[in-house]
């Protein structure tokens, strides 16, 4: 690889990441609970219900057409009864993650495009996880978080981020390549630094770490294929769309062949629109 | 008769443009079976084909990944 033109100082990067405000404690605890077998559902539900802002946003999503319950759910208990705690938890996490990142980033970073892409990957990851009978709600949350490193770059290093965007357009190359060429670090690595600073569960970190270059890890394979699929369907895409380099082995390991995927594409497109409306409007 | 011919031509032009766009979208995806499978599948989906001929991964995309 060629020498990066504006390499980031890793220690300084770590300091800037450590200075970023964390997500609300409730959201952090719900993220940690994704990998806990013995859930204290009653306590978590009480805490969700006590956060009025989060509760209102969660109920709005629960009442969206995607869940087929329009107008039927007006309390958290009812939502848990009808949808189940795990689904409600993923709704709360969706609202909490998107709501928790309202910081103004520079360098031409477009938060709307960023979140639409994140929702697209989340919806694709959930569909692929269902097809594999894996944890669909954890996959959805992982999709929302997979690119946070890009947000951090734009937030902490706006000028450098702008150079990355320019280089990518100039060379018509994937994000990762432009980031490494300019900064000597890529958004996956930055995302992992943030995830570790926040103490996120290992399963989520694996998805963030390796979604472009999976290495025989189930969570990373799933996130990689979801990322590719979101770009292939041009969901939440930027003007110059591009399917990123695909890892053939990851697609084979995941068993994602045409027979599995064909029925999912239309369903993913519909879910994407509905989740965007519910989470981002 | 002339109108029908014009419609067919217009449809072919549209279909060619669609195939070209999808090939462009996959320009960095790679030159392997998974990339070809997904490209063919996406093209079939865009054409509105519910069960694409690519369902066994043998579809022939127009153009290729990088």
TrEMBL record, chain A:
Q: Which SUPFAM superfamilies does the entry mention?
A: HD-domain/PDEase-like
Task: Provide the alphabetized UniProt keywords.
Answer: Kinase, Transferase
Originating species = Pseudothauera lacus
Q: Does the keyword Kinase apply?
A: yes
Q: Which PROSITE patterns match?
A: HDOD (PS51833)
A Gene Ontology molecular function term for this protein is: kinase activity
Keyword match Transferase: yes
User: One short Pfam family name for this protein?
Assistant: HDOD
What is the protein name given in its UniProt record?
Histidine kinase
Provide the HDOD domain boundaries.
20-214
TrEMBL record, chain B:
The protein's superkingdom reads Bacteria
- What protein name applies here? Uncharacterized protein
Q: What is the lineage of its organism?
A: Bacteria, Pseudomonadati, Pseudomonadota, Betaproteobacteria, Rhodocyclales
